Amino acid sequence: MVDAVNADLPAPDELLALAVEIAEEAGALARRRRTEGVAIAATKTALADIVTEADREVEDLVRARLAQARPGDGFLGEESGAETGTSGITWVVDPIDGTVNYAYGIPQYAVSIAAVTGEPTPETWEALVGVVHNPAVVETFLALRGGGAWLAGRRLAVSQSGDAGALLATGFGYDPATHAGDLARLAEVMPLARDIRRAGAASLDLAFVAAGRLDGYFERGLNPWDHAAGALLVTEAGGVVSGLPGGRPGRDMTIAAGAELHDRIAETVYRPR
Ligand code: IPD
């Protein structure tokens, strides 16, 4: 049974169907462009932070489809920015999460689409639906607020990591000034881990936690579009997602795992140094 967030809002399962349809169409475009060869269009916050022509084209497609289907909704996208809506719904979109993987031809990138209600900021929004689609392997992870997280008709559940330690993922962002701190934090978390992955697409890291393919994930420096859909996947799969102690996931920190492991990662990350 899906929670009623607000009687004036559309049925969340209609939003989910739309998000899945658009994510898969956008993913097919990204995959096609990948086979044709990828052009770097610009650098953004740092030399390593790139945007490809495909990122822009895919975001344009998602934005146009959403505007056509739901003209009153707001939009917050990685490449084309924010537009306030009138319906109470905002779509939070990363057209190609894992752009560096995409540019290098590594099949670990995703179209991430979430519909949220409330102020379009992760500190306060309520995510209604979240879809993370990896076009390279044609997998669509989806979550509906109060309705679970799903992959190919199978309900997802976060793992319970055992005595061998947790399979953890993290990331390092693009700003070289933050790398020393990120590596120090990783060293402190390492005793909890059986091994570490740095796969390069935060939305898929979160989707993999939801699916039990990873036991946990933590990263500093994420943008709203990196975690909007994936965080809902994790909570709907029975996990916990947080940011700074007691807070929402965000740029300062995102931690995702089953409840017990989540708390052990959080204690380690925030232990006074
Ligand atoms: C990036 C990826 C990466 C994470 C970065 C993100 P982008 O997103 O999710 O795994 O470490 O912080 O910015 O730039 O490829 O959309």
Give your account of this protein's structure.
With 273 residues, this protein is of the alpha+beta class. The chain folds into 2 domains: 12-155, Fructose-1,6-Bisphosphatase, Chain A, domain 1 (2-Layer Sandwich); 166-269, D-Maltodextrin-Binding Protein, domain 2. The chain is 34% helix and 26% strand. The strands form 3 sheets. It has an 8-stranded mixed beta sheet with strand order 4-3-5-6-7-8-9-10, with helices on both faces. Strands 12-11-13-15-14 form a 5-stranded mixed beta sheet, sandwiched between helices. α1 (12-36) runs antiparallel to α2 and α5 (202-210) runs parallel beside α6. The termini are far apart. It binds D-MYO-inositol-1-phosphate.
How much helical structure, as a percent, in the residues? 25-40%
Question: How many beta-strand elements?
Answer: 15
CATH topology of the largest domain: Fructose-1,6-Bisphosphatase, Chain A, domain 1
As for the number of domains, it is: 2
CATH superfamily of the largest domain: Fructose-1,6-Bisphosphatase, subunit A, domain 1
CATH-defined architecture of the largest domain: 2-Layer Sandwich
Mean pLDDT over the residues:
92
Overall form: globular
Q: Work out the radius of gyration.
A: 18 Å
Each distinct ligand: D-MYO-inositol-1-phosphate
**Fraction of residues in β-strands:** 25-35%
What is the straight-line distance between the termini? 45 Å
Number of helices: 7
- Uncertain ranges: none
Largest sheet: 8 strands, mixed
Placed side by side, the strands forming the largest sheet appear as 4-3-5-6-7-8-9-10
